[in-house]
Give the backbone structure.
Amino acid sequence: MTKIAILTDSSSSTYNVDHHYDNLFSLDIPCFIGDNIFKDFEKNGDEVFYEALQNTDIVPKTSQPSVGETLSMYEKIKELGYTHIIYLPISKELSGTYQNGHIAKDMIEGIEIKIVDTKMTVSILGSMVFEACRLSRLGDDVDTIIQKVLALREETGYYVTLNNLTSLVKNGRLSNAKSILANLLKLKPVISLTNEGKLVSLETVRTYKAAIKEVINKVALEVDQHKGVIHVAYTNNTNDLDYALQIIKERLPHIKIETFTLPATVVAHVGLETLAVGYVNYNI
């Protein structure tokens, strides 16, 4: 009998969402501030990392799950009686997690593993993961689940703005060089998570609040007001969250809104002064 496990990583922040899927597993993408390592996010959450980041000038870094850690997770899932794994990691354009998944895959037998280039991260990836869990519970086969999850990906968008570009520029996660100039000039970027799985700066504006408004404008033009769900993600910047929610509710008073805290894995690259707004259009 087919038994399907859904595997993701901590960039999807599924550990911050209450759910009842016992076939969902996650690998940590560890964060580093100097010699201090932060992981076990399902147990510890993100606040420990947030607090450490707030009290240091060191630019944090991340590292993908090692081949050994990935292999150990595959083996754990196999021992639990699963016959198949659908692995939905962070975009391969943003991390080596996807590549290490393939290396580990070649080191295990007795379980079928499909690794998907999701081209996504954060709550959008989380939505893809939960959709895969839902479909597996309904009895869909592996190929059908992957097909439907990738179709859902095409119905999403994600935009980010941040008050300080230092971490993003130094960690090399932004695809275009004009972000460095924006940082020097104290301009605030409007960044898109593209369909290719890259972070690209679309434009810059003069103030952080204006950038938040522009991020919301872009989502408002793309989200389906009847089938869409807006995602708003923040760190410990609750004032920015309240500001964004007020604007969204005034512009789209009837749309469903879900709020998320940004996972430490992502905050390591974007910093604490960050707000993101995205959407998922569900055609079900």
